[in-house]
Amino acid sequence: MVIKILEECEVDPQNVSKIGPDTFLIDLDKRQLRDVIKCLVLDKGLHFSTCLGVDYSGLRQGSMALIYVVTRPSSKIIIRVTLNENESIPYVHDILPAAEWCELEAMDLLGLKTSLPVEDRFILHWGLPSKVQPLRKEFKHNTRLSNMVSCRVSKPEDFVEVDPHHPFFYEHEDFLIKAIGNRIVDVLYIGSYINRGIEKVGESRLKMEQVPFIAERICGICGFTHSTAYCQAVESALDIDVPERARFERTLMLELERLESHLLLLALIAYSVGLRDIFLGLLRSREIVMNACDILVGNRKMYGLNVIGGVRYGFETRQIRDVKELIKKLKTSLKILDALKESQELRKLKDVGVLPKESAHKLGAVGPVARASGIDYDVRRDLPYAAYEEVDFDVPIMDQGDTYSRIVIRCEEVIQSVRIIEQVLNRDVLTKGDLRTEYYPAPGKIGVGMTEAPRGENVHLVITGHDSRLYRWKVRAPTYANLAVLRAVLVGESPRDAPVIIASLDPCLSCTDRLVMVRRT
Amino acid sequence: MRMLYLNLGGCNGCDIELLAGVVRAMEKLGRELPHPDHSVKSERYDLTLVTGPGTLGNLCRIIRDLERIGKEVDLGHVVVLGSCACGGGIWYDSYMVCGGWDLFLKELSSRGFRIRCRSTIYVTGCPVRPEDVEKVLVQLLHNYPNLISSLR
Amino acid sequence: MYRQASDGEKNMRGYPRHDPDKCIGCGACSNVCPTDSITVRVSGDRIEWIHNVARCIRCCFCVDHCPTGALSVGEEYSMIADSIDKLYILHTIDVEKCPKCGRTMTYSVNVEKHVASRTEKASMSCERCKIESLLRVVEKVRRV
C-alpha cells in the first residue's frame, strides 16, 4: 500500500528500505524533496508530522541531513536528505505551512545555510551570537551561555500583551494581540522562555536507559506519554518486543494521565467562563485520579515507570482493587461534565474561533483540535501502540471546529478514557507476567515512536549512537503543531474571547519549548 | 500582603501541585491568600514562591522587569519549590539553564541588580507534594504574625 | 529535617535511603543516577557517599541497580531546609585495607560480608600486590 503511494509520487523503489514492521526509510535527492512532499501531503492527504536537522559528522564522514516524518494510518515514512556541510538547504514550508517552525529550527540550531531571508535568530533569540549552534556535535551541553545573553527582545509597538504573559497557565509565553476596534487583526507569539536544552542533554550527558526520566520531565502534565513515546522509538529502532504486562500497564497509566490533563483543562475553562462550582467539582475529580496514580506508582506525577523494553514495577492485586474503588467514585463525580456541557456560558462559545477542516490539515493541527474540525485521526486507533489494539473505545469527531466543540470533544474523551481504564483494570495480565525484555544497543539505527498525548499526536525520533547513548533525539510535542493554528482561530474574534480560545487549544508550553522559537504565527 | 510567584521555566508539575497545596493552606488558615503577581511589578513583596530551574529565557524576562522598576527589589520570604528550583534538577548543567535559584540570583547580582530575601526555605521533591506546600506556608505565616494579620 | 509520610501517603516512593553498613562503595548508584546527584569517592582511608538531595528527582533508579541492597526506597519524600548546604547527606564508610601490604583499596570493609569462600578472601589484595605476585611467578618461571 505504502509502496504504491510512493511509486505514484515518483520515488525510486531502490531508495526505499523497510526498517521496521511499519516504518519506511527513504533516501531522497535534494532536488526531489519538494515534489515528493507536495505529492504525499497535499495530493495524497498524508499527515505531515515533523522535520529535523541532523549533524551526521559523528556517525559518518562530515555531512548534514534533513529528516522529514510523514505518517498515514498504519505506517510511518521517514524521508532523509543528505547534504554537504556548506550546501544551502531545501525547504518546503512555502507550500506546506506546517513545516515552517521545524525547518527554521533546523537552520538555526545547526547553522545550516539557506537561500531564504531568515530573521537573525529564530530559536535562540536572546541575543546569542551566531556561532552558538547547540545541535552541532562539537558543542558541549554544559557550555555556559549566560554571559553571552544580551536579553534584547524587540517587540512591535502596536501590539498589546494579553495579561500578564499567558492568560491561563502560569507559564511564560507572550501572546501579543493587535486589535482594531473590537476585532483581532493580527497575533504574534513569542516563546522560548522555557527552553531547557532537553534534546542536547539527552544526546550527550545521559545514557539511553536514563533518558526516559528526562523525557518524563519535558512536561508536568503529560510527561508519561513522552517517556512512552521515547521508549517506543528506541524499541522500534532496536527491534525490541515489549511484554504484554508492560503494554497493559502503560495503557493504564497513559489513560489516567489523559484524565488528569483533560480534567485540569476543563476545570480551568469552567473557571474562566465563571462556573466556580464546576471548577471545584472537576478539580476534586482530578484529585481522585491523582490518588489512583499515587497508589499505583508511588508518586502523584512523574511516574518513573518506563524503561526501554518494558516497565520497572509490577502492579499488585491490592493496588488494582483500590484503584477500581477510586474509578467507581470518579464515575459518579464525572456527572458534573453534563452540567458543564449544558451550561449557557459554554454555549455562548459556539461559532467562536472557528478552524475549518482544510486549514487544520494544512497547518498540521493534531489531537482534539483537529478532531473538533472533522479530521479523523487518532494515533491510538490508526497506529496502535501499547495495548490499545486489545481494548474497545470510540474516537469522538465533530465538524464545527469552534471553541465549543473543542471543549465538548474533551468531555467525550474523558468518558472514553474511563471506559478504557475499566477494561484494562479487569485484565489478569496486569498482575502477572514478565515486566521487561533485555536489549542490546547498536549504533546508527533510526526509530520513530508515536503516542496520542492528551493534546494530540506526539512524535519522538531517535538515532542511536555509540557507547549506548543517543546520537540524535527529536521531540515534537503536540502543542508545537497546534500553536500554528493560533492566527487562524484568533483573527476576526473579539479580544475579550482571546483567553478562552487560546485555552481551548490547550497549549502546553513546557512541552513545546524544549527548544525555542519566535515567529509570527 | 503582596505575593510574587515566579515560574522560572518549570515543567508545570510543581505549579499544579503548588495550586493544590495553596488551596489546602487556605482551608487550614481559614483565610484567603492574595492573587500573586507572575512577573516582578513592585519593588517590595512579602512572600515569593519560586519553581523551575531558571532558564535563560526567564533570566531575560526578569531582567526586563527589573530594569523597568529599578535596580533594587525586596522579595520578602522566599519559598523555593521542587528539585529544579533547589538544585537544577535533571538539567542542572544544561546550556540553557542557570541551575537553580541560588545560581539564578548570582547571575542577577553579577549584572548589578540588588535582590533582598528576608529568608529562604527550600522544599525538595519532584514534583513537590501539596502536603509540604501546605506545611511550609502555614508554618511561615504563623512564624510571622504580621503577614497573617494582613490577610483577609 | 525529613517530613514523615502522613496517612494518605503510604504508597509513596520516597528517597533512596542509604545503609552504610551494607554499602561496598562500588559506585553503581552514581553511574546510573540521571541527575548525577550521588557521588562516591575515596578520601584517605574512608569512602564518602554523598547525596545531593536538592537535585535528586526521586526516580529511585539507583535502588534498582544497587548490588548489595544498601539502597532502599525510603518513606520520607521531601526535605525542607533553610539553606542549600543542609540539603546534603554524607555517609562515610571505612575502606578495606589490603591484607598483604595494608594500602587502602577502592571498596569498603562491607565487601567481606559478600565474599563467601575462604579462597576468595585469600585472593583479595590490592592491584599492586596482585601485579607484584604475578611478576614474582614470572620471575620464577624464567629462572627455571
Task: Indicate the topology.
The complex is a heterotrimer of chains A (521), B (152) and C (144).
Chain A lengths: L1 H7 L7 E3 L4 E6 L4 H11 L3 E9 L8 E9 L2 E9 L4 E2 L10 H11 L2 E2 L45 E2 L12 E7 L2 E8 L7 H7 L6 H6 L6 H16 L5 H29 L3 H22 L8 E2 L2 E2 L5 H17 L2 H7 L1 H4 L9 H7 L3 H6 L6 H4 L20 H23 L20 E8 L2 E9 L5 E7 L1 H5 L3 H5 L7 H7 L4 H4 L5 E2 L2
Parallel strand pairs in A: 2-5, 6-7
Antiparallel strand pairs in A: 1-2, 3-4, 4-5, 8-9, 9-10, 10-16, 11-12, 13-14, 14-15
Helix pairs in contact in A: 6-7, 7-8, 7-15, 7-18, 8-9, 9-15
Chain B lengths: L2 E5 L5 H17 L17 E5 L4 H14 L2 E10 H6 L13 H10 L3 E10 L6 H14 L1 H5 L3
Parallel strand pairs in B: 1-2, 2-3, 3-4
Chain C lengths: L15 E3 L9 H5 L5 E6 L2 E7 L8 H5 L5 E3 L6 E2 L6 E10 L6 E5 L2 H4 L3 H6 L3 H17 L1
Antiparallel strand pairs in C: 1-4, 2-3, 3-6, 6-7
Structure description:
The complex is a heterotrimer of chains A (521), B (152) and C (144). Chain A has 521 residues and is an alpha+beta fold. Chain A has 2 domains: 2-148, Beta Polymerase, domain 2 (2-Layer Sandwich), CATH 3.30.460.80; 198-519, Cytochrome-c3 Hydrogenase, chain B (Orthogonal Bundle). Chain A contains 19 helices and 16 strands. Chain B has helices at residues 13-29, 56-69, 82-87, 101-110, 130-143, 145-149; strands at 3-7, 47-51, 72-81, 114-123. In chain B, strands 1-2-3-4 form a 4-stranded parallel beta sheet, with helices on both faces. In chain C, 31% of the residues are buried. β4 (114-123) of chain B pairs antiparallel with β5 (80-81) of chain C.
